[in-house]
Design goal:
Distance between the termini: 34 Å
Strand content: 5-15%
CATH class of the largest domain: Alpha Beta
Number of strands: 8
Largest sheet: 8 strands, mixed
CATH topology of the largest domain: Rossmann fold
CATH superfamily of the largest domain: NAD(P)-binding Rossmann-like Domain
CATH architecture of the largest domain: 3-Layer(aba) Sandwich
Order of helices and strands: EHEHEHEHEHEEHEHHHHH
Radius of gyration: 21 Å
Number of domains: 2
Strand order of the largest sheet: 3-2-1-4-5-6-7-8
């Protein structure tokens, strides 16, 4: 099984490392822009060889994994199209799915595309952060809308080789869910960081564990998150609007109804504790 991974960062590098170690891939070809990062990937065992040219990377590949920022995926699809055959399966790892699925129309055989999103990662980036166990027991969502059955099976086999748990859903449902559980939390963390920066950056030094936990995700790649916010803008704006309404209501309660505040906080605490018990 020859696998091409375009974008050998944290996710792409970790995937290549695991697929080589598990024996799922007989060869992993990496592709990216940074020679230093690709050389690191080679030295760490994430790839068997690398190239800077997407078209060269996918030549002869059975499976192509696009692990670049969501804004670039359409251009990557166009670049690799001449070497994508009816036997080539293409997937991605982006955290926005509707826009990527739409871009798959640029491929010569759109039914060979299976949208994917591993729910794993850290605030670190680059091949140097690669971890073969990154996906162990994590969810890996696929959005196989109109995909060929054998293409789905191949991607499912890849997911199984990583130790992740496969889950299927529509692209629209995926984007709605992750607007709430990932994209909005990141937006709020960046917003709080910007507020602190404008007010007094020194305030960060007084923060305890709660602030550090909340702000950790604001150390993530800014370009990647800009692209995610833009790509999932409709669902994110809907979530942000609901959040804004709830925040304003809670602020109003603080000034007028302490019992209502206590009841709301207790309901949220019960929700979080129940969620912890099931994970």
């Amino acid at each position: 099984m020859q696998v091409a991974i375009i974008g050998v960062g944290l996710i792409g590098g970790s995937l290549g490392l695991r697929l080589r170690q598990s024996g799922f891939a007989s060869e992993v070809v990496g592709c990216g822009r940074s020679s230093a990062n690709l050389e690191t990937a080679l030295q760490l065992g994430c790839v068997d060889r690398y190239t800077h040219q997407p078209l060269s990377a996918v030549t002869g590949a059975d499976l192509v994994v696009v692990a670049t920022p969501v804004r670039t995926v359409g251009a990557i699809f166009e670049a690799i199209a001449p070497e994508v055959t009816e036997h080539t399966v293409v997937t991605d790892v982006g955290s926005v799915k509707q826009s990527v699925v739409a871009q798959a129309a640029r491929l010569p055989f759109p039914r060979r595309f299976v949208g994917g999103h591993p729910i794993a990662g850290t605030e670190d980036s680059g091949a140097a952060a690669a971890d073969a166990d990154l996906f162990e027991d994590a969810r890996w969502i696929i959005t196989p809308e109109g995909s060929d059955a054998d293409a789905i099976d191949l991607v499912a086999g890849m997911v199984g080789a990583t130790g992740a748990q496969l889950e299927r859903m529509s692209a629209a449902r995926h984007d709605e869910i992750f607007a709430w559980v990932s994209h909005l939390p990141h937006l709020l963390a960046f917003a709080l960081g910007e507020a602190l920066r404008q007010m007094d950056p020194g305030l960060l030094s007084y923060g305890g564990g709660g602030l550090r936990d909340f702000m950790r995700i604001a150390a993530s790649d800014p370009v990647m998150w800009r692209d995610i916010f833009e790509a999932n803008q409709p669902a994110l704006m809907d979530a942000a609007s609901v959040f804004d309404r709830i925040l304003r209501g809670l602020i109003e309660q603080i000034s007028s109804d302490s019992e209502a505040v206590a009841a709301t906080l207790e309901q949220v605490r019960a929700l979080v504790r129940a969620a912890r018990e099931t994970t």
